[in-house]
Automatic annotation (TrEMBL):
GO terms for molecular function: beta-glucosidase activity. Coiled coil: none annotated. Pfam families: Glyco_hydro_1. GO terms for cellular component: cytosol. This is Beta-glucosidase.
């Protein structure tokens, strides 16, 4: 049994939320650069042109992470920085930037982890249909090959695509995230192509010996509103959508069609051999869980026949995101993934809590304290959990929510771009120095 002291702690960042420098040194536009230009898409009407200015301040952020005692620095690569058009010519300055980030991490003794895709598709590829167009699989393969050839000599741990369900659900079904597309046809095609891309990216990276390649999945604990058959079935549908659709095809289990009828729509895009190609023996699963949802049957909701009972109507504590504050999902999902395969390595590749500007930081400390207890529970159950990456270091651009939710353990002054440790960062520094083996 692994002990809590043996877990490795790190942090996760994403390019579109932090880098800024959105058009600097040859970077092409991404779908988030164009989406934030549209009216009423971002709650506080902000954009990520500067974000936390990680592009210019990466050394400072890496220094902060090291000083706190974190051992892993997970960041994502902006596809349009490497390939401004999504395909074709490589932007050498983009490659240089990530080389500098990687080298600085290594110099400072913190391990760099790469996420190849955290939602910022090059706009040029979106112009051709983005994830809806099957050609994306080939384009992604070429992109990952470039990343492999430039960075795998120094980066051992890789995450393929961050949270397929949120990326495709938000961007191609509900239209609340870039590129703002809606509808079942977009969703079905994009889902299938993203899964194929994940499998393809994995194979490309595994051509290099000793790389450790996993993926990061969004997990939301789903519960039925009542014991009625209708609600139970509705909750199963949402569970299949949120917690199985982007996982089970990789395990060779196919799409979860019996619990999720909309899978029939996806089948239209499945070609001979696709389901075999999708089988992927990831080296680890990255679990990312933030909240719980309670679901009841709602016949009038197309394709799903289900809807969420809003936390505010359930009398539970919520964060500024409107999400129920719920840490028990951690041990629940760790055990659930261990049931797929006991030996597989598991990481919590994101977890965190958003607070509003003047909210009491003690709440976040309490949240992480509960998470430590949750991890202990899972370890007591012999789950193969290796570590935890926090979401996130510096307060950043929270997609359609703009800069209002503050997920960082470090605050950002938007005028001066100055960083300041919050109480949580100080608490964590003490915790990590005490648990050192
Ligand atoms: C996600 C993304 C992050 C978010 C974070 C808070 O998990 O949705 O990976 O980019 O910012 O989760 O919503």
């Amino acid at each position: 049994m692994r002990k809590i002291e043996e877990l490795t702690w790190g942090v996760t960042l994403a390019a579109a939320q932090t880098e800024g420098a959105y058009n600097k040194d040859g970077k092409g536009l991404s779908i988030w650069d164009t989406f934030t230009e549209k009216k009423y898409k971002i709650k506080d009407r902000s954009n990520a042109k500067i974000a936390t200015d990680f592009y210019h301040r990466y050394k400072e952020d890496i220094d902060i992470a090291v000083a706190i005692g974190l051992r892993i620095f997970r960041f994502s690569i902006a596809w349009s920085r490497i390939l401004p058009d999504g395909v074709g010519e490589i932007n050498a300055k983009g490659v240089d930037f990530y080389n500098k980030v990687i080298d600085y991490c290594l110099e400072k003794g913190i391990e760099p982890w790469i996420t190849t895709y955290h939602w910022d598709l090059p706009q040029k590829l979106q112009d051709k249909g983005g994830w809806v167009n099957r050609d994306i699989v080939e384009a992604y393969k070429k992109y990952v090959t470039i990343l492999r050839d430039h960075f795998s000599d120094r980066v051992k741990n890789w995450i393929i695509i961050n949270e397929g369900i949120v990326c495709i659900g938000g961007g191609y079904f509900l239209g609340v995230h870039a590129p703002g597309k809606r509808g079942i046809r977009n969703f079905s095609a994009a889902t299938h192509h993203l899964l194929l891309a994940q499998a393809t990216g994995f194979k490309v990276l595994k051509q290099v010996d000793n790389l450790c390649v996993g993926t990061a999945v969004s997990c939301t604990k789903i519960e039925p509103f009542s014991k009625s058959k209708k609600d139970v079935r509705a909750a199963k549908r949402i569970d299949a959508l949120m917690n199985r659709l982007f996982i089970e095809p990789h395990l060779g289990m196919g799409y979860p069609e019996s619990d999720l009828p909309l899978v029939k729509r996806i089948q239209k895009y499945v070609k001979d051999g696709d389901m075999d190609q999708m089988k992927t023996d990831f080296d680890f699963w990255g679990i990312q869980t933030y909240t719980r949802e309670v679901i009841r049957a709602a016949w009038y909701i197309p394709y799903l026949g289900a809807m969420q009972v809003k936390p505010k109507n359930r009398n539970v504590a919520t964060s500024i995101m409107g999400w129920e504050t719920y840490t028990k999902g951690i041990s629940y999902f760790l055990k659930r993934f261990a049931n797929y395969d006991r030996n597989k390595s598991l990481w919590l590749t994101e977890c965190g809590m958003a607070l509003a500007k003047n909210e009491d930081e003690e709440k976040r400390i309490e949240y992480y304290t509960e998470i430590i207890d949750e991890m202990k529970l899972a370890l007591n159950d012999n789950v193969n959990l290796k570590g935890i990456l926090l979401w996130t270091l510096v307060d950043n651009f929270e997609w359609a929510e703009g800069y209002v939710p503050k997920f960082g353990i470090v605050s950002l002054n938007h005028k001066t771009l100055e960083r300041k440790l919050k109480k949580t960062a100080i608490w964590l520094t003490t915790y990590l120095s005490n648990v050192k083996l």
